[in-house]
Amino acid sequence: MILGIDIGGSTTKITGFKDNKIISPMMVRATDPVSSMYGAFGKFIAVNRLQLSDISFVMITGVGASYINERIYQIPTGKVEEFYAIGMGGLFLSGLSKAVIVSMGTGTAFVRAEKSGNVQHLGGTGVGGGTLLGLSNRMLNIRHFDDLIEMAKSGNLENVDLLIKDITIEKIEGLPPETTASNFGKISDLATKNDIALGIINVVFQTIGVMSIFAARTDQTQDIVLTGNLTNVPQSREIINGLSKLHPERFHIPEHAEYATALGAAIAYSSGGKYTEIK
Known about the structure:
The structure is a single chain. By secondary structure, the protein is α/β, with parallel strands linked by helices. It has 2 domains: about 1-85 and about 260-279, Nucleotidyltransferase, domain 5 (2-Layer Sandwich), CATH 3.30.420; about 95-255, ATPase, nucleotide binding domain (Nucleotidyltransferase, domain 5, 2-Layer Sandwich). The protein is about 35% helix and about 25% strand. The protein has 8 helices and 13 strands. The chain has helices spanning about 35-45, 80-95, 130-140, 145-150, 165, 195-220, 235-245, 260-270, and strands at about 1-5, 10-20, 20-30, 55-60, 75-80, 100-105, 110-115, 120-125, 160-165, 180, 225, 250, 275-279. Strands 3-2-1-4-5-13 form a 6-stranded mixed β-sheet, with helices on both faces. A 5-stranded mixed β-sheet has the order 8-7-6-11-12, sandwiched between helices. Strand 11 (about 225), helix 7 and strand 12 (about 250) form a beta-alpha-beta unit. The longest helix has 26 residues, at about 195-220. It is globular. The mean pLDDT is about 95. GO terms for molecular function: ATP binding; pantothenate kinase activity.
């Protein structure tokens, strides 16, 4: 079995890969990347009742991979460039041969990927999970994703965002009346914390979604694959569906999307892709 490990700043994701299948993906949280990586490795081994001899190769990626400079428990270990892992993992999970893969983490990265292994970083934005938490902390005194998501469930965007129907009674081709004209452009004293929570989620996902569309158009690609932890935010799907009604590009949120980068690291080895072995 090959292990793919995505070592982030606050979370580490790990998955097995064998016989062209993703196996037992899981995540651990820790502030130290080395502790987080070894914690994820130990948890995976224990949960799946494996021996070290069952692991043929370990592939690591992510910002925390720079702290790992020796083999993991003497198992052959390699490092994968993160954008390459994002691209390969996103394609595998979506079943597509070509797409713009969007990795939504603390910030957001846009990657063009082809099944042949051709991967190009198109750019990125600082808008992402860090933006959600930063705004919710400052505006609502909320510091945890789950609390923000729960609060937003009963929110009403019409108390926060300026919509097309608020500024014109005429029909505009391609812009339904409920389309956002300005995020937070109509916030009033009557807006509740629930409304503001939903407004924060909406501005982040609309920004990421529209930038994804622009990246796909620049690359002349029709398919956009969303990956990363933010795919688990339930309100995201309704927001993305709203963008899909306005634009011809196709959005995909595959199963296990949050583990795409870890999976892509494992695939880099199994497919003979690009990686650097740690000696």
